[in-house]
Design goal:
The structure is a single chain. The protein is of the alpha/beta class and 644 residues long. 42% of the residues lie in helices and 18% in strands. A hairpin with a 6-residue loop joins strand 17 and strand 18. The longest helix has 31 residues. Bound molecules: 5'-O-[(L-methionyl)-sulphamoyl]adenosine (MSP).
Length: 644
C-alpha cells in the first residue's frame, strides 16, 4: 500500500442515486458508517464521515423527464429526502457530497485531463450491449437470448446494442499491478470471501473500459470535448476524493486521504474493488485500506430494490419507534457481510425482548430503586463484596472484546457481548435482591453498594451502546446524573466506578416503547394506505375487468413443491376442468388444510412455468407482511361459479 502521512480516520458510504427515494437498504449502509464513525470518535480519533448523492446519468435524466422536471430539480427534491432521513436517523456525517457540485465536477475533470495527458485515457469506438437501467455495458460473455437480445445479468432487463465514439480507460494495462496489490493487501476487500470473488474475476482478464458517453447529456463534460460526458461510475467514484477536499481543501485532504473504509453493498463491489483502485493507481493517489461489501436486506428472500417494488419505507418504523430501535435491529440481526430477511415480526420481537425487556426494564428498575431507597444519590457505599467485584471484573474483561469487535466492524458481535453483560447485571440484581435488603435498616450500606454497582454497570454499557443507539444511550447516561455529552468521554478515561459520590440520579422515563405486533401492523397498514392515497390511482375500465375470468375454484389436490419453502402445487377444480396452479402460500397453509377448500381464482391468466411446474391460473389472496391470507368461500358455494 502506498505510503501516507495521514492522521485521521476516513469512512464513506456509497453516494446514492437520486432517481430513487431512500429506503431501508440505503439506511443500512449509512447507519453502519455512522456507528463506526461514532465509535472511532469515542477512541479519540479524528474522523471524517462522507455520504452524498450520485446525480448524473441517464437514469436520473429519464426519471426527471417522466416527472416533467429538470434533472437538477429532481435531484434537489430527492437530496432533501435523503438529508431529512439522515437527520431522523441521527446520522452525523461530516460532509454531504453532491456530484453536481462544482467542487466535484472540477475535480473529476482535472483527474480526467491528467489521465489523458498520461495516455491512460484514449479515444476510440465502442460497440456493445448496453443496459440503460444499470448504465453499464454488459460483459461480453453474456449469451444471446432466443429473441436475439441480451439480458442484463445484474438487473434482468433487456439490453440494446450501442455503438459510439468514446474515450477509453486503459484498464487492461493494470491487471498485474492490481493482482499484486491484492496479494500485498489481503484486507483490501472484506469479507475475505468477496476478495476471492474479485481476484478470480480480475484473473480472467481486464478489458479497457469505455468511460464517456455521447448519448447522455446529463453529466460532466469531457474537458475540451463537450459532446462527451463522463460515464457515471468514473464521475461517482471520484466523490471519495472530491468529498474530502481534493483540489479545494488541501489540508483536509492530506489529513484524511486515503480512505480507511469504503462501506458499500455487495452489488457494487466490482466497481469499488477493481475500477476504483486502478483509477487511483493511474492518477497516482494512495489506495484505500478497505472496501467492505456488506450483505443485502431482503424481503421474501429477494433484494429490496425499487425496480422490484419491494422496498420498505424506514418511516413505517421511525414514526412509531424513533431511530434507535431501527438502528439496533439492523446492526444486531445480521453480521455485516451476510444477507438478512427483513420482517416486521422479527423487528418487533427483537425490540420488545432486547430493548424493552432486557435493557429498558433494567434501567427503569434500577434507577427507580435508587430514587426510592437512596433519595436519588449514593452516600456511604458499602465495601465491595465478591459478587460486586465479579460484576466489575466481568466488565474489565468484556470491554476489550467489545472494542475489538467494533474495531473489526463486527458490530453484531459487540452487541452480543453487551447483551451478555446486561444479562449479568439483571442476574446480579436477582441474586442480591436489593428490594428485600431495603426493608432492613441495618443494611443501608450494603443496599447502596448493590445499587451503585448496578448503576455503574449501566453507565458503562450505555457508553458502549452509544455508537449504535446514540439518543437512548445519551438519555440513560443523563439519567445517571452525567451532564456531559457521551462523545466527550474518551474511552481511555472511562472507569467502571465513574459515578461521583453525591451525583444526583434522575427519575428515568421509559426509553423504549413496547408495541404489540398487532398494533404495529394496524399502524403500518394505516400509514401505507395514506401514503398510497397520495400516489396516482391507475384505473381499469369495466371492459378490461370483464376480460378476467374469475371463478370459485375447489382445491382437490395439494402438495409442496420440492426444494422450495413456500410453494404449493395445487390441483384446482374450476367447474369445467381441473387446473394445476402454483402458489407461494406454503409458509402459512399446509397442503392438508387446503384440501377441499373453495377460493377465488383467475382462470384465464396466461400459464407460466414456476420451478418447473406449469401454473395454469392463479389463486387470489390478501398479502399481509409478505404472507398470504386467503378468504375461503362457504362449502355450499358451487364450484366454478363466476366471481364478479
Ligand atoms: N450510485 C451508486 C453508488 C456509487 S458509489 C461511488 C449506487 N447507488 S444506489 O442508490 O443504488 O445505492 C446502492 C447502495 O445502497 C448499495 O451499495 C447499498 O449500500 C445500499 N443498498 C441498496 N439496497 C440495499 C439492500 N436491499 N440491502 C442493503 N443495502 C442496499 O449504486
Amino acid at each position: 500500500m502506498a505510503e501516507n502521512s495521514k492522521k485521521g480516520f476516513y469512512i464513506t458510504t456509497p453516494i446514492y442515486y437520486v432517481n430513487d427515494v431512500p429506503h431501508i437498504g440505503h439506511a443500512y449502509t449509512t447507519i453502519i458508517a455512522d456507528t463506526i464513525s461514532r465509535f472511532k470518535k469515542l477512541l479519540g480519533e479524528e474522523v471524517f464521515f462522507l455520504t452524498g448523492t450520485d446525480e448524473h446519468g441517464q437514469k436520473v435524466e429519464k426519471a426527471a423527464a417522466e416527472k416533467g422536471l429538470e434533472p437538477i430539480e429532481l435531484a434537489d427534491q430527492v437530496v432533501g429526502r435523503f438529508k431529512s432521513l439522515w437527520q431522523d436517523l441521527n446520522i452525523g456525517y461530516d460532509f454531504f457530497i453532491r456530484t453536481t457540485q462544482p467542487l466535484h465536477e472540477k475535480g473529476v475533470q482535472k483527474i480526467f485531463q491528467k489521465l489523458m495527458d498520461k495516455g491512460d485515457i484514449y479515444k476510440g469506438i465502442y460497440k456493445g450491449w448496453y443496459c440503460v437501467s444499470d448504465e453499464n455495458f454488459l460483459p461480453e460473455d453474456v449469451p444471446l437470448e432466443e429473441d436475439g437480445y441480451k439480458i442484463c445479468p445484474d438487473c434482468g432487463k433487456k439490453a440494446g446494442v450501442v455503438s459510439e465514439e468514446c474515450y477509453f480507460f486503459k484498464l487492461s494495462a493494470y491487471q498485474s499491478r492490481l493482482l499484486r496489490f491484492y496479494e500485498e493487501n489481503p484486507d483490501f476487500v472484506r469479507p475475505p470471501s468477496r476478495m476471492n470473488e474479485v481476484v478470480s474475476f480480475v484473473r480472467q482478464g481486464l478489458k479497457d473500459l469505455s468511460i464517456t458517453r455521447t448519448t447522455v447529456k446529463w453529466g460532466i463534460p469531457v474537458p475540451d470535448d463537450s459532446d462527451h460526458t463522463i460515464y457515471v461510475w468514473f464521475d461517482a467514484l471520484h466523490n471519495y476524493l472530491t468529498g474530502v477536499g481534493y483540489d479545494w481543501n488541501q489540508a483536509r485532504f492530506q489529513k484524511f486521504w486515503p480512505a480507511d473504509i469504503h462501506l458499500i453493498g455487495k452489488d457494487i463491489l466490482r466497481f469499488h474493488a477493481i475500477f476504483w483502485p486502478v483509477f487511483l493507481m493511474a492518477a497516482e493517489f494512495p489506495l484505500p485500506r478497505t472496501v467492505f461489501g456488506h450483505g443485502w436486506w431482503l424481503r421474501d428472500e429477494t433484494k429490496m430494490s425499487k425496480s422490484k417494488g419491494n422496498v420498505l419505507d424506514p418511516y413505517l418504523i421511525l414514526n412509531t419507534f424513533g431511530a434507535d430501535p431501527l438502528r439496533y435491529f439492523l446492526l444486531r440481526e445480521i453480521p455485516i457481510g451476510l444477507d438478512g430477511n427483513f420482517s416486521h415480526e422479527g423487528f418487533i420481537h427483537r425490540v420488545n425482548s432486547d430493548l424493552a425487556n432486557d435493557l429498558g426494564n433494567l434501567i427503569q428498575r434500577t434507577l427507580t430503586m435508587i430514587q426510592n431507597y437512596c433519595k436519588g444519590k449514593f452516600e456511604e457505599i458499602g465495601e465491595e463484596e465478591e459478587e460486586d467485584e465479579n460484576l466489575r471484573l466481568e466488565y474489565e474483561k468484556l470491554k476489550k472484546r467489545i472494542i475489538d469487535y467494533y474495531e473489526e466492524y463486527s458490530i453484531n458481535r459487540a452487541l452480543e457481548e453487551i447483551w451478555i453483560y446486561i444479562n449479568s447485571i439483571n442476574r446480579y440484581l436477582a441474586v442480591n435482591e436489593p428490594w428485600k435488603i431495603a426493608k432492613d435498616k441495618t443494611k443501608r450500606k450494603r443496599l447502596t453498594r448493590i445499587l451503585f454497582q448496578a448503576a455503574s454497570a449501566i453507565r458503562v454499557i450505555s457508553y458502549f451502546l452509544y455508537p449504535v443507539m446514540p439518543e437512548s444511550a445519551q438519555k440513560a447516561w443523563n439519567f445517571l446524573g452525567e451532564e456531559r455529552p457521551i462523545q466527550k468521554q474518551l474511552y481511555q478515561e472511562l472507569k467502571f466506578e465513574g459515578l461521583r459520590p453525591g451525583q444526583k440520579i434522575k427519575t428515568p422515563s421509559p426509553l423504549f416503547p413496547r408495541v404489540s405486533l398487532k398494533d404495529f401492523l394496524k399502524e403500518e397498514t394505516l400509514q401505507k394506505a395514506s401514503s398510497q392515497k397520495e400516489e396516482k390511482m391507475e384505473y381499469v375500465t369495466f371492459d378490461e375487468f370483464k376480460k378476467m375470468d374469475l371463478r370459485v375454484g375447489e382445491i382437490v389436490e395439494a402438495e409442496k413443491v420440492e426444494g422450495t419453502e413456500k410453494l404449493i402445487k395445487l390441483k384446482v377444480d374450476i367447474g369445467t376442468e381441473k387446473r394445476t396452479m402454483v402458489a407461494g402460500i406454503g409458509d402459512v397453509y399446509s397442503p392438508q388444510e387446503l384440501m377441499g377448500k373453495k377460493l377465488p381464482v383467475i382462470a384465464n391468466l396466461k400459464p407460466a412455468v414456476i420451478r418447473g411446474v406449469e401454473s395454469q391460473g392463479m389463486i387470489l389472496a390478501a398479502e399481509v407482511e409478505g404472507k398470504a391470507t386467503i378468504s375461503f368461500f362457504d362449502k355450499d358455494v358451487p364450484t366454478g361459479a363466476r366471481v364478479r
